[in-house]
Amino acid sequence: MSATQKPASTSTTPSHPAPAVATQAFLARPHRLFIGGQWVDALAGKSIDVFDPATGGKIASVAAGEAADIDAAVAAARAAFTGPWAKFTAAERGKLLWKLAELIERDAPLLVELEVLDNGQPLAVAQHVVNRIAPDFFRYYAGWPTKIEGATVPAAPQGRRPGEVLSFTLREPIGVVGAITPWNAPLPMLMVKLAPVLATGCTLVLKPAEHTPLTALRVAQLCAEAGVPDGVVNVVTGYGESAGAALAAHPGVDKIAFTGSTDVGRMIVKAAAGNLKKVSLELGGKSPVIVFPDAVLEQVIPGAARACFFLQGQNCMAGTRLYVHEQVHDEVVAGVAAIARGMRIGHGLDPASQFGPLISAEQRERVRGFVAAGTREGGELVCGGNAPARSGWFFEPTIFTRMHAGMTPVKSEIFGPVLCVQSFGDDDLERVASEANDTIYGLSGSVWTRDIGRALQMVRRIDSGQVSVNMHAALDPAMPFGGNKQSGWGREFGKEGLEPYLKTKGVSVAW
């Protein structure tokens, strides 16, 4: 450690407030699979232990579903799709979504604690997600079922004259959807699949990440309470290589919606080829944050820190490549480093904690390996780079300078709290954009400047599905989100988020 480095704060003690009685009761109960509206044991009788990443201690055990359980869930989803669910009107589906929003708000204290214990995120993050983001998202999609509509078309098939044929399109639900969600944001990743499924009239088999299954199981209970018919929503907890693989390859599934790593996304595409099921993918990212010398540094510095270190960097939109003009480089780096050093590391249930653990010991070792590579390849470590001496799977917020595109930490998605800083010395927009685009990913990015003309030029040049100006990761239920290049296929959020769950039928009627 250099003389300028200080260890990240570890002033939060390993102790933390105990979960509420309701949370403890939920954790202690048996956690079965939810199939066809019933809680059932996994056919093979296996289970998965769930751990609190802030302590490393076991907090629950859930059923480990496998291929046979996926078969049962898909059959239940198909029966519901062609049965009672098909009789629901668009307005009735909207009411169910609105009711789910109300139930999430009612159960917010429980859902918040489950997210914290399952994933390790700070309490304030979980509260924002559960109290605001999730209800707003379900209410946004509650308005869409009555607005899904086709169009009349001025077609003249088979030489018919105008007025002799009525041609129109129908927008229909695609059918049974298999959704596979990641561990980095369990409830939000569930909501971006579930809401459009219900809005469009599809049915769902959900396989949540084995690390973080708890909020998915609670939301399944809320779906039943809201009045969602049996079989419309099914949850099969299990491992990716068994339950997830079986779901991706299943011939009875019409579409797969996957969020996760690019490597696993490639496997999903191969598995889906058997019956040519439709696939949407929200994959990895290596988002650039570009700071011009006229930017407001009072906004840039906390914004850049938040862009990288939110969710401990376990965030596909994380701004982990920071490009700073040399005129303001030292000031920006010093400011972001001061924030990083001052972040209070601790258990998420402690309201004072600002920075939680990584999801697992394996993930911590992965991050440690990338930091070692950055040092070995010539990066200058400004702060962090170590795992605090405490229980749980923590790793300090870490900043490298003197980086370039060829270095391993710069070109790889680390999925951890590692910021790679590069400088540029002029206003050559093409060169800066070229460096920002020098990656296989294209998910998100941000530009920081007071010059709106320059900002919009950079927005055009950055090859990613989402770009923000003077902010990072500007998500809203109404704004489409998704990746270019190897960051994914399709879009979620907004009207575009309905498209992967709909199919178009052309109809011509002659008289």
Mind sketching the topology for me?
Layout: H1 21-28, E1 33-35, E2 38-40, E3 47-51, E4 58-63, H2 67-82, H3 90-106, H4 108-119, H5 123-142, E5 152-153, E6 165-173, E7 176-180, H6 186-200, E8 203-207, H7 214-226, E9 233-235, H8 240-249, E10 255-259, H9 262-272, E11 278-282, E12 288-291, H10 297-309, E13 321-325, H11 329-342, H12 361-376, E14 380-383, E15 398-401, H13 408-411, E16 418-424, H14 429-436, E17 441-442, E18 446-448, H15 452-461, E19 468-469, E20 484-485, E21 488-489, E22 502-510
Parallel strand pairs: 7-8, 7-10, 8-9, 10-11, 12-13, 12-18, 13-16, 15-16, 18-19
Antiparallel strand pairs: 1-2, 3-4, 5-6, 6-22, 11-21, 14-15, 17-20
Helix pairs in contact: 2-8, 3-5, 3-6, 3-7, 4-5, 5-6, 10-11, 14-15
Overview of the structural elements:
It is a single chain. This protein is α/β, with parallel strands linked by helices and 511 residues long. It folds into two domains: 260 residues, Aldehyde Dehydrogenase, Chain A, domain 1, CATH 3.40.605.10; 189 residues, Aldehyde Dehydrogenase, Chain A, domain 2. It is built from 15 helices and 22 strands. The strands form six sheets. Strands 14-15-16-13-12-18-19 form a seven-stranded mixed β-sheet, with helices on both faces. A six-stranded mixed β-sheet has the order 9-8-7-10-11-21, sandwiched between helices. It has a three-stranded antiparallel β-sheet with strand order 5-6-22, with no helix packed on it. The protein is globular, with a radius of gyration of 24 Å.
